[in-house]
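As promised in the previous annual report, we have extended the structural survey to additional targets. Below is the entry for SnoaL-like protein.
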Amino acid sequence: MHTMTDRFADALHRLDADRDPGPLVELAGDDTQLVKLDEHHQTRGREGAQTFWTDYRDVFGDIETTFTHTVVGESSAALEWTSTGTLRDGKPFTYRGVTLIEGDEEQLSGVRTYYDSAAFLQGRSGTA
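The corresponding structure token record, generated without further manual editing, is:
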């Protein structure tokens, strides 16, 4: 799972910088389940991954994610991160969260992300 964790982090950095969800979509399979914060934001498969990552990136003007701690197991990994940048309306933000990925070195079977939503709900910078 170490290689997949690195591939995931690299793909997320590409999404941040280039708005290109392609590398993240390539990590998904037909049955990959993607869940954001709560069960109201979940998709499945490659088409779902395209929607999931495009919708995620569209919230931001600029964004940079820094991974601060990673725990890697045989078939899963937890990646703690801090993201900073601007929202679409130009307001600056900082928020922190954790993304859990599951799968093997070839393909993800699950992505679940949990984060501090205060930066978005209150229109201000938030920290967890």
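Confidence is low (pLDDT under 50) at residues 123-128. The radius of gyration is 14 Å. These points will be discussed at the next consortium meeting with the crystallography subgroup.
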